[in-house]
Specification:
With 343 residues, the chain is an alpha/beta fold. The chain folds into two domains: 128 residues, translation initiation factor eif-2b, domain 1 (Four Helix Bundle (Hemerythrin (Met), subunit A), Up-down Bundle); 199 residues, Rossmann fold. It is 40% helix and 17% strand. The strands form four sheets. Strands 6-5-4-7-10-15-16 form a seven-stranded mixed sheet, with helices on both faces. A four-stranded mixed sheet has the order 11-8-9-14, covered by helices on one side. Strands 1-2-3 form a three-stranded antiparallel sheet, covered by helices on one side. The chain is globular and about 65 Å long. The structure holds 5-S-methyl-1-O-phosphono-5-thio-D-ribulose (MRU). 5-S-methyl-1-O-phosphono-5-thio-D-ribulose binds next to helix 2 and strand 9.
Length: 343
């Protein structure tokens, strides 16, 4: 099934906090449950966050009890604000909400509700298509026999299906290339160990799990052909916000002459922000650092910092792979062309 979808009048989604131990599918028609699922990372990954936000808005709107279009639109505004408060960094959340706001059509409340649900369903279908396109463009950059390093989870679980960074790997494999993946475990929440390793093993793609601090060693030893990651927000100049630790991978890749690629849909590009310095970075709970799997590993009372994302300056990024083509420096110009559709 898709990571998130609409079935029998409800939103169905895979609870990613339970993987890899059990595959649990939850369903709800309560938009506040989706907001909670986004906050706790039951649903995570920028494109999946976007589609979840769209369905949350549609589900919230469906329950508004009024026949007055004005009252409905005012309630819709409250719902959109609540959904927007779920997480700050992945721009797909705000992109999706904006698209939903613009999608409202019709004279009656019933028609407006229907137009919102139709738009959310369209966004689910589009995400699957977009990832296949990213995969096809990106696969050209992956040589046969490659060993690809990745960080966090930019796979099927982070999207509706197929993935962005892992979509590129899947597409390369579908083209008949032999390849293997080194997956950073990705502390603090272990998306690499729990999700990327699980997902690739399901698809019989060879994967070797390493701790985050081993990446430099393997890059230096010449084991890694290229690194490929996803993104939560890309500024107009090509600076990339992605899971904390991505910046270290990019610097280590550059130091060792290894290409560092970012695979992301154009919905992750935020042309309103000139540079990555303007990207809001989510700070998460200290318990994510002081505990692993619910077991405390640090002394009580220790000071903790827990930024969930970092920003990789664009000069470390060898290429940004989108569904509309592959951008390289100068990103300011190439991203503008791609967003404008002229690529
Ligand atoms: O905190 P998360 O798990 O939502 O962070 C996810 C990432 O950083 C992904 O790499 C990014 O969203 C791209 S997903 C295709």
């Amino acid at each position: 099934m898709n990571t998130i979808c609409w079935r029998n009048g409800k939103i169905q989604f895979i609870d990613q906090t339970r993987l890899p131990h059990e595959t649990v599918v939850l369903e709800t028609d309560d938009y506040q449950c989706i907001v909670a699922a986004l906050k706790t990372l039951q649903i995570r990954g920028a494109p999946a966050i976007g589609v979840a936000a769209a369905y949350a808005v549609a589900a919230g709107a469906a329950k508004v009890e009024t026949d007055s279009p004005a009252e409905f639109l005012s309630e819709l505004d409250n719902i959109c604000r609540t959904v927007a408060s779920a997480r700050p960094t992945a721009v797909n959340l705000f992109w999706a909400i904006e698209r939903m706001r613009k999608a409202v059509q019709g004279e009656t409340v019933a028609e407006m509700k229907a137009s919102l649900l139709a738009e959310a369903k369209r966004m689910e279908a589009e995400d699957a298509e977009v990832n296949r396109k990213i995969g096809r463009f990106g696969a050209e950059l992956i040589p046969d026999g490659a060993t690809v390093l990745t960080h966090c989870n930019a796979g099927a679980l982070a999207t509706v299906t197929y993935g962005t960074a892992l979509g590129v790997i899947r597409a390369a494999k579908e083209q008949g290339k032999t390849l293997q993946v080194y997956a950073d475990e990705t502390r603090p929440l272990l998306q690499g160990a729990r999700l990327t390793a699980w997902e690739l093993m399901q698809d019989n793609i060879p994967v070797t799990l390493i701790t985050d601090n081993m990446a430099g060693h393997f890059l230096h030893k010449g084991v890694i052909t290229c690194a490929i990651v996803g993104a939560d927000r890309i500024a107009a100049n090509g600076d990339v916000a992605n899971k904390i630790g991505t910046y270290s991978v990019a610097v280590l890749a550059a130091e060792n002459g290894v290409p560092f690629y970012v695979a992301a849909p154009t919905s992750t590009i935020d042309m309103a922000l000139a540079t990555g310095d303007e990207i809001p970075i989510e700070e998460r709970s200290p318990e994510e650092v002081t505990c692993i799997g619910g077991v405390r590993v640090a002394p009580e009372g220790v000071a903790v910092a827990n930024p969930a994302f970092d920003v990789t300056p664009h000069h470390y990024v060898s290429a940004i792979i989108t569904e509309k083509g592959v951008a390289q420096e100068p990103y300011v110009e190439r991203l503008r062309e791609i967003i404008g559709g002229s690529s």
